[in-house]
Amino acid sequence: MSIHSEVKRVTTHTLQEMKIKGEKIAMLTSYDFSMARMVDAAGVDVILVGDSASNVMAGHETTLPITLDQMIYHASSVVRAVQRALVVVDLPFGAYQGNSKEALTSAIRIMKESGAHAVKLEGGAEVRESIERILSAGIPVMGHLGLTPQSIYKFGTYTVRAREDEEAKTLLRDAKMLDEIGCFGIVLEKIPAALSKEVSELVYAPTIGIGAGADVDGQVLVVHDMLGITNEFNPRFLRRYHNLYEEIKGAVGNYVQDVRSRDFPNEKEQY
Ligand code: KIV
Q1: What is the pTM of this model?
Q2: Catalytic status, residue 167
Q3: Record: fold of 12-240
């Protein structure tokens, strides 16, 4: 029996059961094989191949430039590493908005070419038709409400969303709609904690928060942020578990010094 067949995989049903039992869901991003291997081995339930790859992997200022081909490349690298977690892939900007046929084509490409298990896309009523068409092909969809970074030029800033009544009501309506049409989960990004509690109690699907407080069904962070590989992004919601920027810089500095001083390689490190 292979190792693979002994590991019980996380499915969308597992997440639903976790919500019913009150067990919290741990989700993190990954974009490459080596990181995904560690993240999966550490017991994360859901790995998101986020379009935040545009920022942390490619160095763009926003998530808008990343392409569908690039998302598929990242996703297939992650899928090759993962034994247990559910792998969810972001549909990038321009791959689903305003054209539900194109949305389905994009989602099918992700599923077929990367081997991922589900897709995520941003928005509410305005993307309903795209979500329904993707769902009709049997592809699980995760929604994303609140701060939706693909719409940054509409919002103008990355500040907390839905503080005002009108926007909060729209968000509640969108969450209910996403739940009713069959999304298996909903990411809630940067909204007041009281509102995400209300959403989580309203919907059947598990809610996953980022900057959305504690009363959600799970949490997600960008792995480069929580490990401190990025060091200039410091929102209030981010808990850093390491300072890898300094640690890696220190280790690389030591290597440079050892090469220059001829300490590396020594006699035992050669043939
Ligand atoms: O792209 C991403 O990393 C995300 C998370 C912030 C939820 O969408």
Answers
A1: 0.96
A2: no
A3: TIM Barrel (3.20.20)
